[in-house]
Amino acid sequence: MREQEKEKAVEDLDYEIRPRTHNDIQEPPRRWAELIRKFGPTFVIMGAIVGSGELIVTTILGAKVGFVMLWMIMLSVSVKAIVQEQFGRFIISTDDSLMDMLDRIPGKIFGASWAVWWAVALMISILIAMAGIVGSIGLAVAGFFGGNHQLLGAIAAIIGIILILRGLYSDLEKIIVTLVGIFSILTIFLSFFLLQATPYGYSASELVSGLTFSFPAAAWVVALSAFAITGITANEVITYTYWVKGKGYAAWSGPKESEGFFGRARRWIRVMDTDLVLGAIMIGVTTIAFYLLGASVLHRLGQVPSGFETVEILSRMYTETLGAWTRYLFMTAAFCILYSTYLVNTAGIARIIPDGLRKIGVITMKTPKQRIFWRRVFVIAGPAVMFLLYFAIARPAWLIVVGGVIVGLSMPVASVIAIWLNRIMKRQDPQLAQSSTLTGILLVCAAIIIGITVTGFVIGLLD
């Protein structure tokens, strides 16, 4: 009986798995002290980004080419947030799940929109990058305590399953903010201040050289992966919809037929946008900090992270600037930040794949209990596949870069879907649709995303 009561409590608290009701209605806060407590979805997304994108791919790019592609990193973190905003806005308006939303896009394939199949395929491809993350976690733990990195990676993966098996968004948010916050602040301080007092300090002219729109052909794979995997990625864009629902923005707006819905929903969208902007600024500053460390330290040392030495080489960004004593500090911090990426992406995979299979007609999820069951199945299945992939291809940095390229192909698709959702909202819910200005920004950013992706592949093919 007690177990049934616990399950019922989870169902009641989980805004993701049940329709919103009149009892969920909350007025948005007006004071900053209250508003801060309503932030969270973008900071959960930050937990997914900072590990694979910032710590590994961004620093690999900086180590490989130096400062010359700083412009791409800055562009990457600034043009994708508007796409993310459109996805979140649509969810608040409709209270759809991601797959119900994507199924509104015209073009059915075997009973479901092509966009549904795309999202499921994207999550499966994310397993490749996450296999590299699991391997890197094992390397970080082995670098601290010694031992077999594959076994340690497996143990860390199992502990992660236990941490997120309950499935509540609030659990995930608390864990991720704790794991990411300390390391991000430390890295920002190191990159922008402490580094300048060492032989690896960078000059204004080096920073300017990074804004000349150079695109070295030899680095096109890593560059495209960096553009795809830094800042918000297609993966984070679609998982963001679950965190928006999980936080409560859609539920607190109330049912669409409730009195005052549109005014209340507009104000919750503003809360979401504030959370998104503040999170994007933090992501941008952290990303640039990692890139500068890679360009200033690793590029000058002539060391590009790869293979089993990936985490060890990355630690030299700390040890070469602050001293050998920081190696263990870095290994601890690297574990935390990589672990946050693993947890967020595992939680996302466990939501999106079963939701997609439901929409395609492979499984049934008509009740909250069924949704919880299938989410837990994939919380276990996802890490199992990640570890098997890493065991078969024990090259963590390579797995992450290849996974990043695949994700890169998906960001233009996410941009096109965002434009389509914008059109649907303007027709169905014009009171909540993006303004003409935001729509214009969305179109420009989508063009940049598509242009950079196509250019990267053309340069690579011609090389």
Q: Can you tell me about this structure?
A:
With 463 residues, this protein is mainly α. It has a single domain, classed as Amino acid/polyamine transporter I. It is built from 19 helices and 2 strands. It has helices at 2-13, 32-36, 41-65, 70-79, 81-94, 98-102, 114-145, 149-164, 169-192, 204-209, 220-229, 234-247, 249-253, 261-301, 310-322, 326-360, 368-392, 396-428, 436-462, and strands at residues 108-109, 112-113. Strand 1 and strand 2 form a beta hairpin. Helix 8 crosses helix 16 (326-360) and helix 11 (220-229) crosses helix 18 (396-428). The longest helix is centred in the middle third of the chain and has 41 residues, at 261-301.
Task: Tell me the fraction of residues in β-strands, as a range.
Answer: under 5%
CATH superfamily: Amino acid/polyamine transporter I
- Radius of gyration equals 21 Å
Annotation, overall tally of beta strands: 2
The level-1 CATH class: Mainly Alpha
Low-confidence stretches: none
Percent in helix: over 70%
Structural classification: mainly alpha
Count of the separate structural domains: 1
At CATH level 2, the architecture is Up-down Bundle
Helices, by number, come to 19
CATH fold category name: Amino acid/polyamine transporter I
- Overall 3D geometry? globular
Mean pLDDT over all positions = 83
Strand order within the widest beta sheet? 1-2
Order of helices and strands: HHHHHHEEHHHHHHHHHHHHH
Q: In this structure, how is the largest beta sheet organized?
A: 2 strands, antiparallel
Distance from N terminus to C terminus (CA atoms, Å) equals: 66 Å
